[in-house]
Every structure is written in C-alpha cells, then in structure tokens.
From TrEMBL:
Keyword Hydrolase carried by entry: yes
Pfam families per UniProt: PAD_porph
Gene3D superfamilies cross-referenced by the UniProt entry: L-arginine/glycine Amidinotransferase, Chain A
Keywords: Hydrolase
SUPFAM superfamilies recorded: Pentein
Lineage: Bacteria, Pseudomonadati, Pseudomonadota, Gammaproteobacteria, Lysobacterales
NADP listed as a keyword: no
Organism: Novilysobacter selenitireducens
Listed name of the protein: Agmatine deiminase family protein
Length: 351
C-alpha cells in the first residue's frame, strides 16, 4: 500500500521543538553571554508546552548547557540533548522538513548552502543525516533532495497551499522559471498550489526575504503579516505593497484571507547597522505561540504588547508567550529561525 504524505501546518500537534545550543565555535562567540540568556528563555518557554531537543557539539557544551538550564529551574525531564556537529544554530533552515503519512513520517533533507553560499555550511548541510542516523526520528524515512531550500522560505496551511517569496527562491535558483519552481515545490512538499509574494523585505536580512519574517498562515483562511505604518521608513513602500498582495490572495474557496497586520518594531541599530526585527518570526507550539520581543524601554515594550495582542486575535485559545530576542537579531534572524518543530509521532525514543 502506497503511503500518502502530507506537509502539516505548524499549528498541528507536535512532539518536540529542535534547537542547537550556541557555543564559542559558532558565530555567536562575540556575544555568547547575551544570546545564552535568550536560549534559556526560549527553552523555558518551549518546555512549558512540550519537549525540547537540544543539539550540542560535544560533552563539554552539553554539561554547560545542562547546568545553565537546570539553574534556571527548567523542567529537565522535557530537555533532551543530542551530540551532533553544526556550524551555527539556525535550525529552521538546516533542520528537517517533515511530512506525515498514515504509515509514518518522511524527512525531506534539502541542500543547505548557507543562504546561497554566504556562510560556511558543510556541517549544517549534514545535520539531518546525523540526527537521523542517531535515531532521533525513530523509523522515519529520510529523503535527500539535491535542491537548495530552507525551512524559513516556506509556510503551509496544512491543506495543500504553500506561501513563499519569489526573491528567495529566484536567488537560489536563478535559471529556474516560476512555473518550474512551483512544480518542484508542489511535488516535493505535497502541495496543490503555491502562492508567491513579489514584495517584502527586511534590512539586515541575509536570507533573501524568507517568508517566515514577512507573512505566515494562522489558519487555512488567515494570514499574519509584518506591517509598516511609517512612511519615512525605508521598508514602507515594500511592506505596503506586500500587504496589497496578501489582500489580493484567495483561499481555495475563493474568499479573501483574513489578514492580521503586526505592528512595526522600532528600528534596532547596532554599530550603524539596521537589524531585522520582525514580529512575524513567531513559533507555534502545542497550545501557545512563542513570539519574539525586542523592546528595551517602555515604548518598545508597548509595541511588543501590541504585537502580542494581534497574535491573540489571530490564534484564539492559544497562550501568547513573549521571548526576548533582541540578541538573536544581531545575526539577522529571530525566534522562528533558530527552531524547528517536529510533528506528533516524528520523534523516536529519547533519553
């Protein structure tokens, strides 16, 4: 009997969230202390709702991470460590894209090229292979696909509709037409249709406009997106154009999507460099939405709360948990970028 696979939406039941602990051998070395605090807060938030699988590069890193998390009074019964080599901690893009089916799960192991060769990624490109060999995913099958695709570049409603951006996929595959890319994504990811956004970007983003920093499904008929209401801001024209694109999209029933516009975060500048602070980079877990918070003063915290209020409307019945992510955007990513959810049943027995 042929197993029919499906790409589940992020809001469907999960078994765990996969992350990688930052250490001195990663690009976090210069700001390790600050980013560790974010990871502690992130693991605390995840383990309130489900297990966290934490990749560590060696026994010393594991011992250190275990001590830091335990000292924060995190439920260590829900924390599982896996020794595996990695270049950096952006597991949204180097981790597995998991399909589920009646007979089990399939891990799609696409090429990870360090966002088009911008960064060294040879170890990250083998992350799924190593985790699969270690039994993290039980008896799930692993399919290697010689095609560059990052998890942050795509979002699905779990019913056969994929949302992505032309800028990113065209940058990775400049010789492929939109029709060719649509057909490939639909086949590999088991999608009926692909919705392309031609507008939207964030300064400081080196992913070439990943959709998970711009617009995300909240339900089969709802999309949450990053707005910008400041005409003097360099992002205004592009994000306004993206908002119009989203308003023109239709569900499979022919209805317009319910749209939830996230507030624009106050600019975060580091040594003259604008950092990519997006509230759209949230993570959905069992019963909650973990959202990035960036505010350091009262005004910034008010915008964080305004974003939380929008997410409460978009995800009724789920708790909204703010996770301080200002240290993460120093490397141009945020909360969703450093995590990868694993669907229910996709994880093997962990110790």
């Amino acid at each position: 009997m042929t197993n029919t696979y499906r790409f589940p939406a992020e809001w469907e039941p999960q078994s765990a969230v996969l992350i990688a602990w930052p250490h001195a051998g990663t690009d976090w070395a210069d700001r390790l202390e600050q980013v560790e605090e974010t990871y502690i807060a992130l693991v605390e938030a995840i383990t309130r709702f489900q297990p966290a699988i934490v990749c560590v590069s060696d026994d010393d890193v594991q011992a250190y991470a275990r001590a830091r998390l335990a000292s924060a009074r995190i439920d260590m019964e829900r924390v599982h460590f896996i020794d595996v080599p990695y270049d950096d901690t952006w597991l949204r893009d180097s981790g597995p894209i998991t399909l589920d089916g009646a007979g089990g799960h399939r891990l799609l192991d696409f090429r990870f090229t360090g966002w088009g060769g911008k960064f060294e990624a040879s170890q990250d490109d083998r992350l799924v292979e190593h985790l699969h060999a270690d039994g993290v995913f039980g008896d799930a099958e692993r399919s290697t696909i010689d095609f560059a695709l990052e998890g942050g570049a795509i979002d699905t409603d779990g019913r056969g509709t994929l949302l992505t951006t032309w800028q990113c996929l065209h940058e990775r595959h400049p010789d492929a037409s939109r029709e060719e890319l649509t057909a490939r994504l639909a086949e590999w990811l088991q999608q009926d249709r692909v919705l392309w956004l031609d507008h939207g970007y964030l300064e400081g983003d080196d992913t070439d406009a990943h959709v998970d920093t711009l617009a995300r499904f909240a339900a089969v008929d709802a999309i949450v997106y990053q707005g910008c209401d400041d005409p003097s801001d360099s992002h205004y024209a592009e994000l306004q154009a993206m908002g119009r694109e989203l308003a023109a999209l239709r569900t499979t029933d022919g209805a317009p999507y319910r749209l939830f516009e996230l507030p624009w975060a106050p600019p975060v500048i580091d040594n003259g460099r604008r950092l990519a602070a997006s509230y759209a980079n949230f993570l959905i877990v069992n019963g909650a939405v973990l959202m990035p918070a960036y505010g350091q003063d009262d005004a910034g915290r008010r915008v964080d709360q305004a974003a939380a209020d929008v997410l409460s409307q978009a995800f009724p019945g789920r708790e909204i948990v703010q996770v301080p992510c200002r240290p993460l955007i120093w490397q141009n990513g945020s909360l969703h970028c450093v995590t990868m959810q694993l669907p229910a049943g996709a994880v093997g027995t962990l110790t």
